[in-house]
Design goal:
By secondary structure, the protein is an alpha/beta fold. Helices cover about 25% and strands about 25% of the residues. It has 9 helices and 14 strands. Helix 4 crosses helix 5. The structure holds NADP nicotinamide-adenine-dinucleotide phosphate.
Length: about 325
């Protein structure tokens, strides 16, 4: 099968499309025929191989010392091609989407995952590319909003509201009944409004700290590499307000969370935002774009065209 291998840690050019062995599902595993994946911020961090000193050794042990052992890619959408012995949750032909944050291997035509992994039925109402864009930002936003104790009626500020995590956080905070202020740059003000934010602050023109508004929860969703300021301890909170950052601790993902996101997508209450879509062959270009830190929502990768969509739209 075709897969993108990472020859060493470094810039996007370390990624190369190669022929590799097609995996076979083991007991309790499903083999997914991948239609779409995505370039997440985490894929780029792993590709660069530059992490905090304390994380260097654990990461190299987990991912590989000289280079990642497996193709990169953690999010996917596709259909179940075959199942291993003992699988009961899925059957061949089922359409699925999911994430394998520590297993990687989604920059490929096929990938095997445990049937008890972070997999859910793909919402019928969205494309494979959109389905692959659900889990990363959605599960991270869900983890941190819940960790911050989000409640109905609260005043919530999402800083970095136009990224993968931010676009999900704005919509989920609205789902939880909060009043949402999103912070982003000028170009993304319209997008963040369209996701349901009650107020949008353009950080190039205004500073949320200068307004009289006080927040029950401030969620900083800006990746560390792009931060020009630290929001922690700078104010803007109510006396009982809480600050959470997307860089805090180790986020926990659950199938329950993924199922909630799927249900919200199906109900039209959560929209995975796609900025650009690249074919798998242009993975280097896609990584270059994500490295800019300027993507809006998610960058999708088409691994193989959806046969149904191709019939509808032969272009
Ligand atoms: N804690 C963990 O273990 C863990 C695990 C997985 C992921 N993560 C983290 O999750 C994050 C995921 O980020 P993402 O994929 O959502 O990022 P992204 O899509 O690249 O979004 C970046 C956001 O930051 C904003 N931004 C960029 N420069 C800015 C600046 N100078 N001032 C204010 N805002 C700025 C962008 O808005 P504009 O373009 O509008 O400026 C955009 O909203 C990464 O940092 C990753 O490390 C953490």
């Amino acid at each position: 099968m075709k897969a993108v291998v990472c020859l060493k840690y470094g810039p996007p050019e370390v990624l190369q499309l190669r022929e590799v062995d097609t995996p076979t599902p083991r007991r309790n595993e499903v083999c997914i025929r991948i239609f779409a994946t995505g370039v997440t911020s985490s894929d780029c961090i792993v590709r660069r191989g530059k992490v905090k000193r304390a994380l260097w050794l654990p990461m190299r042990v987990m991912v590989g010392f000289r280079a990642p052992r497996r193709p990169l890619g953690i999010v996917l959408a596709g259909d179940v091609a075959s199942v291993g012995e003992g699988v009961t949750a899925f059957k061949p032909g089922d359409q699925v989407c999911g994430i394998d944050p520590f297993g990687f291997g989604a920059y490929a035509e096929f990938k095997c995952m445990s049937e008890r992994g972070l997999l859910a039925t793909k919402p019928r109402s969205v494309s494979y590319e959109e389905a692959a864009a659900i889990p990363y930002g959605g599960l991270l936003a869900l983890h941190y909003l819940r960790g911050g104790g989000i409640q109905q009626g609260q005043n919530v500020l999402v800083y970095g509201a136009s990224g993968a995590v931010g676009t999900a956080a704005v919509q989920l905070a609205r789902h939880f009944g909060a009043s949402v202020t999103g912070v982003c740059s000028t170009a993304n003000v319209g997008l963040v409004h369209s996701l349901g934010a009650d107020t949008v602050i353009d950080y190039t023109k205004d500073d949320y700290l200068k307004s009289a508004a006080r927040y029950d929860l401030i969620f900083d969703a800006v990746p560390m590499a792009h931060r020009t300021r630290s929001l922690r301890g700078t104010g803007g909170l109510t006396p009982t307000g809480r600050y959470v950052s997307v860089t805090d601790g180790s986020p926990k993902f659950s199938v329950e969370g993924l199922t909630l996101l799927r249900e919200l997508v199906e109900a039209g209450r959560f929209r995975p935002v796609i900025d650009r879509t690249y074919p798998l062959e242009e993975i280097v270009e896609a990584h270059r774009y994500v490295d800019t830190g300027r993507k809006k929502g998610n960058v999708a990768i088409t691994v193989r065209p959806d046969p149904v969509q191709s019939l509808v739209d032969p272009t």
